[in-house]
Specification:
Blueprint lengths: L10 E2 L2 H11 L6 E5 L7 H4 L5 E6 L5 H10 L5 E5 L7 H4 L6 E6 L5 H11 L3 E9 H8 L9 H9 E9 L4 E2 L6 E8 L7 H16 L5 H4 L6 H6 L13 H12 L6
Parallel strand pairs: 2-3, 2-5, 3-4, 5-6
Antiparallel strand pairs: 1-8, 6-9, 7-9
Helix pairs in contact: 5-7, 8-11
The structure holds S-adenosylmethionine.
S-adenosylmethionine binds next to strand 1 and strand 3.
């Protein structure tokens, strides 16, 4: 098997790490799982015995026969394998109505952050994600306002969920070995009802504008979107930078915009 860089293939070769991830993902008893990128099944074989079912979505057709062999050798029959690019997967058709899922995976590095945000935004049936990602991505997702790693992704994920860094994983447990450490993050969807689509659109716009010029004060970075009057009306100092604002601050600005000419 020749691992593909384009598909982010760093296969897990340490069964203890796979067990640790699977135990964490199943600790609350949620029993329906989605695994993105099962590869040759290192994590799948740890997860399946603890789960009622696993939906495994894999883009690489060459690895799928190996996965089937690995599952058959262990008499594992509760894994449904789909050959599909997860970015094209129809979540509304592909998941059982009314069920709730945990997504557990060693994610390909090139889609990890985008996929996590997309799942939180578009797939409410996924209530929790226990995923291994590059250290830098995991810390960015879990970071707090005012820290070096804090970014638009951090603020968006914080709106939808709470994130904990569960543990770090050394490059030595992968084949091929990546250049960087990995972390397992535990992302739990918040129970609160989400805001309207229009407000969420403005929330996203404000985050994008703020972080696209992260060294500038809000009065400059948000110019043309949220003026100083809007910032004052919600008690946010226009001389701050976006990196100091929590997701609740971005939300306040978006809600003020909805009530203004700009939001109509
Ligand atoms: N779960 C396996 C393990 O831990 O050894 C493999 C993890 S490897 C980091 C990422 C896996 O995701 C690979 O099997 C790769 O082929 C698959 N993959 C990459 N991009 C994908 C995509 N867009 N949709 C579905 N699977 C993808």
């Amino acid at each position: 098997m020749r691992p593909s860089k384009a598909l982010g293939q760093n296969f897990l070769i340490d069964a203890n790490v796979a067990q640790r991830i699977a135990r964490l993902a199943t600790d609350t008893g949620g029993d329906k799982f989605i695994e993105v990128g099962p590869g040759a099944g290192a994590l799948t074989v740890a997860l399946a015995p603890l789960a009622s079912s696993v939906l495994a979505i894999e883009a690489d057709r060459y690895v799928i026969p190996i996965l089937f062999d690995v599952l058959a050798q262990r008499d594992i029959s509760n894994v449904k394998v789909l050959h599909q690019d997860v970015m094209d997967f129809s979540w509304s058709d592909g998941l059982e109505q009314g069920e709730s899922y945990c997504l557990c995976a060693n994610l390909p590095y090139n889609i990890a952050a985008t996929l996590i945000v997309r799942i939180l935004e578009e797939v409410p049936a996924v209530g929790r994600l226990v995923v291994m990602v590059q250290d830098e991505v995991g810390r960015r997702i879990a970071s707090e306002p005012g820290t070096r790693q804090y970014s638009g992704v951090s603020a968006k994920v914080a709106y939808w969920a709470t994130t904990k860094i569960a543990f770090s994983v050394s490059p030595s447990v992968f084949f091929p070995q990546p250049n960087v450490e990995s972390v397992v993050i535990d992302v739990t969807r918040r129970a609160e009802a989400p805001i309207s689509g229009a407000t969420y659109g403005l929330f996203s716009d404000v985050i994008r504008a703020g972080f696209s010029r992260r060294r500038q004060m809000l009065r400059r970075s948000l110019a043309g979107l949220a003026d100083v009057g809007i910032l004052d009306s919600v008690g946010i100092d226009p001389s701050l930078r976006a990196e100091k604002l929590s997701y609740l601050d971005f939300l306040k600005i978006a809600e003020a915009l909805v009530g203004s000419d700009r939001g109509r």
